[in-house]
Write a structure and sequence with these properties.
Blueprint (H helix, E strand, L loop, with lengths): L1 H11 L13 H15 L18 E7 L2 E8 L4 E4 L13 E2 L2 H7 L1 E3 L5 E3 L39 E4 L2 E4 L11 E5 L2 E4 H7 L3 E5 L2 E5 L5 H5 L7 E7 L2 E9 L4 E4 L9 E3 L2 H11 L8 E5 L5 E2 L3 E7 L7 E8 L4 E8 L9 E7 L8 E10 L6 E11 L5 H17 L7 E10 L18 E10 L2 E8 L4 E5 L2 E3 L6 E3 L5 E2 L3 E7 L5 E8 L4 E7 L1 E2 L5 E7 L11 E8 L5 E9 L7 E10 L2 E10 L4 H10 L15 H6 L13 E7 L2 E6 L10 H15 L7 E6 L10
Parallel strand pairs: 18-24, 31-38, 42-43
Antiparallel strand pairs: 1-2, 2-3, 3-4, 5-6, 7-8, 9-10, 11-12, 13-14, 14-15, 15-16, 17-19, 19-22, 20-21, 20-23, 23-24, 25-26, 26-27, 27-28, 28-29, 30-32, 32-36, 33-34, 33-37, 35-36, 37-38, 39-40, 41-42
């Protein structure tokens, strides 16, 4: 009910566009007052530089810069004011900056950081004339910005821009207003614009009206020119007029010789245009989200950057992004956050999908989904057709696997591992040319690959067949992939701490060290003793926990290692560990025992659409150490030593499935859950741990526990 109420509240929130909004910062007011208060009071000889006042409330737009994740902005007719560093000196003229709005609308990208952008189609909004003018729009100017300048000092602006391109316009060659009198950023600025940018005027400063020369800092207000000036024919109040236009980084200047002298040069309404471009146009047809990258039907590979805008519909701004093949296979999925200015307000999103490319190019779809707050069901709010680029054959896949294996062995990241040679070969037998002495092999020709890698100046010889088998051949002896003993974490895993490790080693009862080595050089380690599997193998079923002391671990790659008492590497795998503040991290509540009482633990987990199953998986791995917490759910040691153990049992309790339908959650566990050993108190504790963990989710009203699909006669004293 709380979630549903919040969604209703989000739909009822007013737009950021309000009537007569207040200035969001005294610094914004001071900048506006300097040039536009005289206009408002009838004391200025010039037109509006910003506009009559802000037309939006203050907005905390996403902006990644240092420790800041957002910046305060406010929109005016002619532009946008920003405060990028609220801790800066308010007396600095650049404490408040003016957005590069014209540049971004032409380029088709929304700036969300000093060097971070989210793609958006260039603005199809007219730069001059009436709002319904068909040409030119900001998008139409894209081919002409940052091209080689055509006009220098003394030249005249005597070309007209048409939908077909530039055409001569000699009728303007003799106008003094069109003569180039200044060059900036390589582009000539005509007299009419330069005189406007450097003019004197009445300003308001320190509580009084004063005469200023120049009236404003032109670079601060309009930025550098980014194209030559040109003439266009546009409707003005419904009447076709010839207007000279020049785009600058922050503003667009227009010159209409038919206007009164005071208004012949004006600034376009780029603030209004930009707000409409970002907050209104992407959703004008009623859509809830817009995918802006990748482009439709483009060929994509891994990693795939997915960007777009969401209307403000998704609860708590959380959305799912995934890549699906035409056959329905999900190659990659992740959760990400929409960078919204406020609840119910549109905002951009940007994330990456990492996946194993298919061997051949295949059609696919990028999908954006949200989860219903009412029943947990999915709703797709955007999709984009793409072509998923193939690896170019199995050789490329084998090279990728070899580099990842060598990275896990050496600690040298894959992109720093060189490829000396890689070729398709036919091995004389199934040993791939690197046999174990006195071991028999199939004496058949085996198609495969021979890959030579180089890391830190050392050569490494990898052999593979076409079925996915890979070995490292050292001293003419084969070494299996270093990640082979590991069941968890899986290849390419993205995890939070604790990191759960499951591995099968040669001997039981041996001490081994679990170590997590981060890309930054930090490391975590823990010594454990391997459990005895029924066949005598050694089992590792443990977790690597975050350090007890407050050590900041940001999102980064890491290598999980298992080493023996002589520090020899037994198993390793590359993983990605999400930092606690990563937007892809969520929280769940887990319930443990302290005596006969339940105690809740807040744990960070990767965001997922299957959050209930993720919580149960964490519960099955047991409580954190050192807090006096315990669990009634059978541990691996209990499962392995249970007198009633049956053939085919594994070493730990696993979640087979979780189905939530009409408020009823059915959690189906593996047979190892029967190893609790009886007793009403323990049965009750197991039920409470599972039920309380699942009932934290608003879609769950009732919990049913099953073992191997059976709900009757389970968990009896």
């Amino acid at each position: 009910m709380i979630i549903r109420s919040l969604l209703v509240l989000a739909l009822l929130l007013p737009s950021l566009v309000t009537s007569n909004p207040a200035f969001a910062s005294p610094a914004f007011r001071r900048v506006w007052e300097r040039t536009d208060y005289p206009v408002q009071q009838g004391r200025g000889e010039h037109g509006w530089i910003w506009g009559p006042g802000p037309f939006t409330a203050g907005i905390n737009e996403a902006f990644h810069s240092g420790a800041q994740s957002s910046r305060l902005v406010q929109y005016f007719d002619k532009g946008r004011m920003e405060i990028n560093d609220p801790a800066g000196d308010p007396r600095n003229p650049w404490f408040v900056t003016s957005g590069l709005l014209a540049r971004d609308m032409i380029d088709g990208r929304v700036q969300i950081g000093l060097a971070d952008y989210v793609a958006l189609p260039p603005a199809a909004i007219p730069v001059a004339g009436d709002p319904d003018a068909a040409f030119p729009t900001y998008a139409d100017l894209q081919p002409y910005v940052r091209t080689r300048p055509r006009l220098g000092p003394g030249n005249a602006v005597a070309e007209r821009l048409t939908p077909q391109g530039r055409v001569p316009a000699p009728e303007f060659a003799d106008l003094a207003a069109t003569r180039i009198v200044q060059v900036a950023n390589g582009y000539g600025v005509p007299r009419a614009f330069w005189e406007f940018l450097t003019r004197s005027g009445t300003a308001y400063r320190d509580g009084r009206f004063v005469r200023e020369t120049p009236l404003f800092d032109w670079l601060y207000v309009v930025g550098y020119p980014i194209a030559d000036a040109f003439w266009v024919r546009v409707p003005v109040a419904g009447v076709p007029r010839d207007v000279m236009v020049q785009p600058f980084e922050r503003r667009v200047l227009t010159y209409n010789p038919d206007n009164p002298p005071r208004f012949q040069v004006e600034m376009g309404n780029v603030g209004r245009h930009y707000y409409r471009w970002v907050y209104e146009l992407p959703f004008a047809d009623g859509r809830q989200a817009l995918i802006t990258a990748p482009a439709p039907d483009s060929v994509v590979g891994s990693p795939l950057v997915v960007q777009g805008f969401e209307r403000g519909f998704a609860f708590e701004a959380a959305i799912g992004v995934r890549l699906r093949t035409a056959s329905g296979q999900v190659l990659a999925s992740t959760y990400t956050m929409v960078q919204r200015p406020d609840i119910g307000v549109p905002g951009p999103f940007s994330t990456s999908l990492i996946f194993s490319e298919p061997e051949t190019t295949t059609p696919g779809t990028v999908e954006v989904v949200v989860e219903s707050a009412a029943d947990g069901s999915e709703r797709m709010i955007a999709s984009q057709p793409v072509l998923i680029g193939g690896l170019g054959g199995p050789l490329a896949r084998a090279v990728a696997l070899a580099r990842e294996d060598l990275a896990a062995r050496t600690g040298i990241w894959p992109e720093r591992i060189g490829i000396t040679s890689a070729e398709a070969v036919t091995w004389p037998d199934s040993s791939l040319g690197c046999p174990v002495p006195d071991q028999g092999y199939l004496q058949v020709l085996t198609p495969g690959f021979h890959i030579m890698l180089e890391a830190a100046g050392q050569p490494y010889d990898y052999r593979a067949d076409r079925r996915g088998s890979l070995i490292l051949c050292r001293d003419l002896r084969p070494h299996a992939p270093i990640g082979a003993p590991l069941s968890l974490p899986t290849q390419g895993a993205v995890s939070t701490l604790p990191l759960h490790v499951e591995a099968r080693l040669e001997r039981a009862g041996e001490p081994v060290t679990l170590r997590l080595v981060f890309e930054t050089g930090q490391s975590l380690s823990q010594t454990v003793t391997t459990l005895a599997a029924p066949d005598g193998a050694g089992l590792v079923l443990n977790s690597l926990w975050p350090p007890a002391e407050p050590v900041q671990i940001n999102t980064q790659r890491a290598i999980v290692q298992i080493r023996d008492r002589e520090d020899r590497l037994l198993a390793a795998r590359l993983v990605t560990i999400l930092g606690p503040d990563d937007p892809l991290v969520g929280r769940v509540e887990l319930y443990w025992l302290t005596g006969e009482q339940l105690r809740v633990e807040q744990r960070r987990v990767p965001r997922t659409l299957q959050i209930g199953a993720a919580a149960l998986e964490q519960l099955l791995w047991g409580p954190p150490p050192g807090l006096g917490l315990s669990t009634a759910i059978p541990t691996p040691a209990e499962v392995l030593s249970y007198p009633g153990r049956q053939p085919g049992w594994g070493a730990r309790v696993r979640l087979r499935s979780l189905v939530i339908r009409d408020g009823v959650a059915t959690a189906d566990f593996s047979a190892e859950l029967r190893a609790y050993g009886g007793g009403a108190a323990r049965v009750g504790a197991i039920r409470q741990q599972i039920e309380r963990t699942l009932r934290q989710f608003p879609t769950v009203r009732e919990v049913r526990i099953a073992i191997e699909g059976q709900t009757e006669g389970v968990l009896e004293p």
